[in-house]
Design goal:
The chain is of the alpha+beta class. The protein has helices at 8-14, 21-33, 40-46, 52-64, 136-141, and strands at residues 38-39, 68-71, 79-82, 94-99, 105-112, 130-133. A hairpin with a 5-residue loop joins β4 (94-99) and β5 (105-112).
Length: 142
């Protein structure tokens, strides 16, 4: 039996995102050509015909639709990553690794952010857990 595959159009529609040619192009590019966390600059290189402002709006829409999540890895450049089913509770997301040499960020989707005891009445809206070090590729090249 063949597994059921949801089309990119259906994915956008299921997320409550109106399907347009640009949104579809951006989503397909992210899904097929960007394996790890990425910045708008990296996406711009892959889509030179799409205006930067359009990319920013599209990224915001994909984040709002919970298809992407934002990562602040301390590099002064906002990064994005495709959400997995487990990510949809952003209050308890996954751990990210950031290389201090090449500045790439990797998602560890199978490693949840550890529970943190909070004061009574405090409600978490979002949490991030960034581990910084040197990635295996940079270690090999040193």
């Amino acid at each position: 039996m063949t597994p059921f595959v949801i089309s990119d159009e259906q994915t956008l529609d299921n997320a409550g995102i109106r399907v347009t040619a640009v949104r579809l192009l951006v989503w397909k590019t992210i899904r097929t050509r960007l394996a790890n966390a990425f910045s708008i600059a990296e996406l711009e290189e892959l889509l030179p015909t799409v205006e930067r402002s359009t990319l920013f709006r599209t990224m915001h829409t994909l984040v709002e639709g919970e298809l992407l999540h934002e990562i602040d890895d301390g590099s002064a450049m906002q990064k994005y990553c495709v959400c997995t089913c487990e990510d949809h509770n952003h209050r308890r997301g996954h751990v990210h690794l950031t290389c201090t040499k090449c500045h790439r960020t990797y998602c560890l989707t199978n490693v949840e952010i550890p529970a943190v005891p909070l004061p009574t009445g405090f409600q978490v809206e979002h949490s991030e857990y960034i581990v910084k070090g040197i990635c295996s590729e940079c270690s090999r090249n040193s």
